[in-house]
Automatic annotation (TrEMBL), chain A:
It catalyses: (1S,2R)-1-C-(indol-3-yl)glycerol 3-phosphate + L-serine = D-glyceraldehyde 3-phosphate + L-tryptophan + H2O. The keyword Amino-acid biosynthesis applies. Its EC number is 4.2.1.20. Belongs to the TrpB family. The beta subunit is responsible for the synthesis of L-tryptophan from indole and L-serine. NCBIfam families: trpB (TIGR00263). Pathway: Amino-acid biosynthesis; L-tryptophan biosynthesis; L-tryptophan from chorismate: step 5/5. The keyword Transit peptide does not apply. This is Tryptophan synthase beta chain.
UniProtKB/TrEMBL annotation, chain B:
It catalyses: (1S,2R)-1-C-(indol-3-yl)glycerol 3-phosphate + L-serine = D-glyceraldehyde 3-phosphate + L-tryptophan + H2O. Its EC number is 4.2.1.20. PANTHER family: TRYPTOPHAN SYNTHASE ALPHA CHAIN, CHLOROPLASTIC, TRYPTOPHAN SYNTHASE, ALPHA CHAIN. Pathway: Amino-acid biosynthesis; L-tryptophan biosynthesis; L-tryptophan from chorismate: step 5/5. The gene is trpA. The lineage of its organism: Bacteria, Pseudomonadati, Bacteroidota, Cytophagia, Cytophagales. It comes from Hymenobacter negativus. This is Tryptophan synthase alpha chain. InterPro entries: Aldolase_TIM, RibuloseP-bd_barrel, Trp_synthase_alpha_AS, Trp_synthase_suA. Keywords: Amino-acid biosynthesis, Aromatic amino acid biosynthesis, Lyase, Tryptophan biosynthesis. Pfam families: Trp_syntA (PF00290).
């Protein structure tokens, strides 16, 4: 029997990474989810409702677009998986639609979430509005400043946005606050975590809900190239949800090279970076054992990236494992390189990508892909939310 | 008889005080321990500050940030704790903190140094039971360290009995939903029922109630349902911006223990 990279052990481990390191106060919540998620997701009625919403509300399947001018520039065949065309502008809603249906089946009446760039917060606020459930989103005070339009969107959608003022006041701290809220509200509340992070079963749950991305890619590639399998799949990684979704149905196809692109910030070794696969060591963050940026005493350090969606000091345990065993390759891209990729895609293909997504695009020159290779880039989000950052850096973009 | 068993055998209504090592000043650890015990604290819980304390509310988060900024870390703490048993010879002492700093220090080395300075037990809230049994229990026991586990209103009887079988110290009853230092009073009737339910289980170990206990009234109420109580955030709050932290800590303990 061949082993699959997809499925963690019953205790949620991918190799040495994963698990559920939660205080006793959270044990019943996590256990309730762990014992029920697979059964609920396998229920045909759940699947019918999920597939209906993905089609009619999210707008799936998203197109697989052959980017011919970009392909000419890199002398290879590049396809863009257009997750930026999902409702709310990014892949995040694939997960929140699934989790809100799960929450309803678990009898939960209140939803909480964390958000970094605000995309997951918006996607959560959106499905809460759709289902008529109250929604509280925790967001770092600094992220609320730099992603103000998304704060406004969440509020317009009826969510309460709570400012996380502890620590670095970014995604890590917003996640801490969401977990503390869950500890205080253990019975009625479901926590919709936004990435393939956190205690088991979240990494697996979120990966399964995002796996629709690679499921569609395979069908679309067959139609457009004659083969379900590309040579490369490229995706950016903060916590790693879009990468998990883009990789999922290729994990057990060894001929497909999986490329995870991290944020190097000012440079991997500049002291201002979020390149966890290089700078991290195994440790515990948010209930999961994974690669983690920390000091010599095990205190979690503050990551840096110009993009609010990538400055997370850990990565999902699946990605830590894929990196350790060599199934995925990691590339780190600086702020400057990502901004250049924003300009490039905008000019060559008429698509303004999110800053997070631009990191994946900026890796195209480093793949070593040849003219006969097929490269799929997961275009995880659109750039509207980053306009302010782009305006501030216009000298680098024009 | 070990210090923890002796304390529970010889005293009633035990007060366990928590403070964060390195707060308010880096070198307050031993003077605070001495002052707390001399004023009447029966058990000490010394917090090992962590950057991301998930089970803690804003007060202990704040004290942890200050302690880290003051330069507290495990090597510094163990150096300070070499003076622990000269300062508090008989009092049970537990180290409380999160798993990651312990993992990075090395679990075996951590246990070895903790035992060497006279620590009696460990509270690591994010160390799950399965992991404890599989990877940690043997090492803890080798160094004579008792693990203390938390129980909440949602913990099943089966799990409570399992936790009870895995410790020889006491069980830490979390008073209600929420992180440490919570200010919303849980429904008194619901809370009493929970404490009575636990009392009726006739567990092997004594119980201490913690989370949200801030003053003498709260302490006395907890003592009606258990062998004593744990106070942390309220003590930390009392130490904020004071000139003489040990004197203030002693005053705080006397206010709780006053007849």
């Amino acid at each position: 029997m061949t082993t699959s990279y997809k499925q963690p052990t019953t205790r949620g481990y991918y190799g040495q990474f994963g698990g559920a390191f939660v205080p006793e106060m959270l044990f019943p919540n996590v256990e309730e989810l762990r014992t029920q998620y697979l059964e609920i997701m396998a229920d045909p009625a759940f699947q019918a409702e999920l597939q209906g919403l993905l089609r009619d509300y999210v707008g799936r399947p998203t197109p697989l677009f052959e980017a011919k001018r970009l392909s000419a520039k890199y002398n290879t065949r590049i396809f863009l998986k257009r997750e930026d065309l999902c409702h709310t502008g990014a892949h995040k809603i694939n997960n929140t639609v699934g989790q809100i249906l799960l929450a309803k089946r678990l009898g939960k009446t209140r939803i909480i979430a964390e958000t970094g760039a605000g995309q997951h917060g918006v996607a959560t606020a959106t499905v809460c509005a759709l289902m008529g459930l109250p929604c509280v989103v925790y967001m770092g005070a600094i992220d609320m400043e730099r992603q103000a339009p998304n704060v406004a969107r969440m509020r317009l959608l009826g969510a309460e946005v709570r400012r996380a003022t502890s620590g670095s006041q970014t995604l890590k701290d917003a996640t801490n606050e969401a977990i503390r809220d869950w500890i205080a509200n253990p019975v009625d509340t479901h926590y919709i975590i936004g990435s393939v992070v956190g205690p088991h079963p979240y990494p697996d749950l979120v990966a399964r809900l995002q796996a629709v991305i690679s499921e569609e890619m395979r069908k679309q590639l067959l139609e457009k190239t004659g083969s379900e399998l590309p040579d490369f799949v490229v995706a950016c990684v903060g916590g790693g949800s879009n990468a998990a979704g883009a990789f999922y149905h290729f994990l057990d196809e060894p001929e497909v090279r999986l490329v995870a692109v991290e944020a190097a910030g000012h440079g991997v070794h500049s002291g201002h970076s979020a390149a966890t696969s290089v700078l991290g060591k195994p440790g515990i963050i948010h209930g999961s054992k994974t690669l983690l940026m920390q000091d010599e005493h095990g205190q979690i350090t503050e990551p840096y990236s110009l993009s609010a969606g990538l400055d997370y000091p850990g990565i999902g345990p699946l990605h830590a494992y894929l990196g350790e065993v060599g199934r995925a390759e990691f590339i780190a891209i600086t702020d400057e390189e990502a901004l250049a990729a924003v300009a490039e895609l905008s000019r060559l293909e008429g698509i303004i990508p999110a800053l997070e997504t631009a990191h994946a695009l900026a890796a195209l020159g480093q793949l070593g892909a040849g003219p006969d290779d097929v490269v799929v880039v997961n275009l995880s989000g659109r750039g509207d939310k980053d306009l302010e950052t782009y305006l501030k850096n216009m000298d680098k973009l024009i | 008889m070990d210090r923890i068993k002796h304390a529970f055998a010889s005293k009633h209504n035990l007060l366990n005080t928590y403070f964060t090592a390195g707060y308010p000043s880096l070198h307050d650890t031993i003077p605070l321990a001495k002052a707390l015990v001399e004023a009447g604290a029966d058990i000490l819980e010394i917090g090992m500050p962590f950057s991301d304390p998930l089970a803690d509310g804003p007060i202990i988060q704040g004290s942890s940030s200050v302690a880290l900024a003051n330069g507290m870390n495990l090597p510094v703490l163990f150096e300070q704790l070499k003076g622990l048993r000269a300062a508090v010879p008989e009092t049970p002492v537990l180290l409380m903190g999160y798993l990651n700093p312990v993992m990075q220090f090395g679990v075996e080395e951590f246990c070895r140094q903790a035992a060497a300075v006279g620590v009696d037990g460990l509270i690591l809230p994010d160390l799950p039971l399965d992991e404890y049994e599989e990877f940690y229990q043997e090492t803890f026991q080798k160094y004579g360290l008792n693990a203390v586990f938390l129980i909440t209103p949602q913990t099943s009887e089966e799990r409570i009995r399992r936790l009870d079988s895995l410790t020889e110290a006491f069980l830490y009853l979390v008073s209600g939903p929420g992180t440490t230092g919570g200010t919303t009073q849980p429904d008194a009737e619901i809370q009493a029922k929970y404490f009575e339910r636990i009392a009726a289980l006739n567990l092997r170990n004594p119980r201490l109630i913690g989370f949200g206990i801030a003053d003498k009234a709260g302490f006395d109420r907890a003592c009606q349902h258990a062998e004593g109580a744990i106070i942390g955030s309220a003590l930390i709050r009392a130490l904020e911006d004071v000139a003489d932290a040990p004197a203030e800590a002693a005053r705080f303990v006397r206010s709780i223990k006053a007849a």
